[in-house]
Amino acid sequence: MPSRDHEDLGPPGIGSGPRHPADISGVLTSLREIVGDANVLTDADATAGFLTDWTGRYRGEADAVVRPRTTGEVSRVIAECDRSGIRICVQGGNTGLVGGSVPPPGDGTTDPRIVLSTVRMTDIDEVDTVGRCVGVQAGATVESIDRRAGESGLSFGIDLASRQSATAGGVVATNAGGTRMIRRGNARSQILGIEAVLADGSVLRRWTSLVKDNVGYDLPSLLAGSEGTLAVITRVLFRLVTPPTAATVAVASVERVENAIDLIGAASSAGLTVEAAELMTEAGVALVSDHGHRRPTATPGPYYVLVELSGTGDIESAAAELLAATPGIIDAVLEPAPARALWAAREGHTEAIARSSSTPVVKLDISVPIRALPEAFAELSRVGTDGAFPCRPILFGHVGDGNIHVNLLDVPPEHATAVTDSVFGIVAANGGSISAEHGIGRAKVAWTHLGRDATDLATMRAIKAALDPRGLLNPGVLFG
C-alpha cells in the first residue's frame, strides 16, 4: 500500500471550505497511485456533476471524486480512507431522489471526504444460460444488463424509466423495484450473489448460482437496501428471467382509482399475467402531452391505467374483452408490447415534471396498502390546495404494488419540510411506508420513526456499528 508520507501537499479540497492541506493531500497522492491521476478529480468544474443530485435539491461538498476500475482498486481506496479517517460517499448513476448519492454539504469542520464513483466499473460477464444469471460490475446500467441478457434470449427482471443511467450498484443499494415489480419483485429478489468492500477495505464475496444455499445469514439481502452505509457494492450476480413470448400493452382512461385496481384483479382472474401496472392522473398526462408526447387515449379521464399483459393464445383479444367487461373505463387503446409510444405517457412524467416546476421538485416515493390507494390518492391530490403551503401535486406510480410517486411542484424552499410532513402524515394514517423503493437517503431521515420503532432502529444502528464502526461510509444517509 502506498505510503501517506509525501512532501507534495497537492491541491486543496474543493467546494468544502477551508481545510488543513496536510490532512488530505497525502491521501490524495496515495489515491492517485491506486487509480491513476486522471481518476482523482479535484477541479471544481470536473466534480460539479458528482456533487449535485438529479433533482437539484441536494448539493454536497468533497475534497475529491475518486473513480476506481476494479474491486481491488476499491479495496485499496477504502483501506486508505479507513487508515486516514476519510469519509466516503458512494455514487453510481446519481439518479437517486433522496440525496443519498451525493456527499453532505459543508458543516464547518475539516473532516475530509471523497465521492467514490463506480462510473468506470461497467463490465458485464458472459451470460450463464443454464443457470440463467449474469455477473456485472456495480457501474453497469440497467439498460446494458438487459441488452446483454437479450443476446441470450433472456431479460433482466428490473426495468426503470432511468434505465440508461441507473446502475446495478445503485439499484441494489436502494432495493429498487421499478415497473416490473408486480411480476418479478424488487432488486433483492434478483440477487444470487454479491461482492462488496467493507469499511476496512476487506472484500466480502458471496458468489454462487445455486438455487438453494442456506448457510448462515443472507448477507446479499442485508446489503440490498442498505444505501451504501454498510459496504461498497462492486459486483452483483443477477438472476435473469425468460421474457414472455407474447404481450400486449393497454392504456385506459378510467373514472376512479378503484377501476384500475379492478382491472388488475380481473386480468389475474382471467389467467393473464400482469407484467406491469401503472396509474397516472389527468394532470400528469396533460403535462407530458404539453412536452411533446401523444395522449394515450382519444377521450381523457380523471385517471389512466397502463397494464402490460402476457399469456397464451390471442393476448390482444383477451385484453380487449377484459377492458370491455371492466366498469369505469372511458376509453382504451391496445398495442403489442413493447409499445414504447404508450409507455412514453408514463415514462415521460419525470422529465416533464422537472421542466414544469419553478422550484426543485419535492419528490416523495411512498407506498400504501392497495386497498388504501383510492383514499390516499384523493388525500394526496389535495396537498397544496388548502393555502397552507401552495403547490401543484402530480401523482403517478405502480398501482399493482401500492407505490405512489408524489411530486410537488412550485414548492417554496421554506415550505419543503412542512409539505413533506403533510404527505408523510397522510401516508402514516393510511398504514403506508415513507420509502417504497428509493431509500431514505438524507431527505427522509427525520421521518424514519414513522416506519420503524425504537427497537428496530436500534437493531439497524447496531448492524451499522458492527460493519462500519467509524461511520465513514455514506455519513448522514439513513441515520442522519
Instruction: Please give the share of residues in helix.
Output: 25-40%
CATH class of the largest domain: Alpha Beta
Mean pLDDT: 91
Largest sheet: 7 strands, antiparallel
- The total domain count is 4
Q: Might you state the CATH topology name of the largest domain?
A: Uridine Diphospho-n-acetylenolpyruvylglucosamine Reductase, domain 3
The CATH architecture of the largest domain comes to 2-Layer Sandwich
Strand order of the largest sheet: 13-10-12-11-15-16-14
Strand content bin:
15-25%
Low confidence ranges: 1-22
**Main structural class:** alpha+beta
E-strand count: 16
> Alpha-carbon distance between the termini?
32 Å
Characteristics:
single chain; 480 residues; alpha+beta; Uridine Diphospho-n-acetylenolpyruvylglucosamine Reductase, domain 2; Uridine Diphospho-n-acetylenolpyruvylglucosamine Reductase, domain 3; Alpha-Beta Plaits; 4 domains; seven-stranded antiparallel β-sheet; five-stranded antiparallel β-sheet; 15 helices; 16 strands; 30% helix; disordered N terminus
Notes on the structure:
With 480 residues, the protein is of the alpha+beta class. It has four domains: 24-117, Uridine Diphospho-n-acetylenolpyruvylglucosamine Reductase, domain 2 (2-Layer Sandwich); 124-241, Uridine Diphospho-n-acetylenolpyruvylglucosamine Reductase, domain 3 (2-Layer Sandwich), CATH 3.30.465.10; 247-347, Alpha-Beta Plaits (2-Layer Sandwich), CATH 3.30.70.2190; 357-438, 2-Layer Sandwich (Alpha-Beta Plaits), CATH 3.30.70.2740. It has 15 helices and 16 strands. The chain has a seven-stranded antiparallel sheet, sandwiched between helices. Strands 5, 6, 7, 8 and 9 form a five-stranded antiparallel sheet that branches. The two termini are 32 Å apart. The model is unreliable at 1-22 (pLDDT under 50). GO terms for molecular function: FAD binding; oxidoreductase activity. Keywords: FAD, Flavoprotein, Oxidoreductase. This is FAD/FMN-containing dehydrogenase. Its cofactor is FAD.
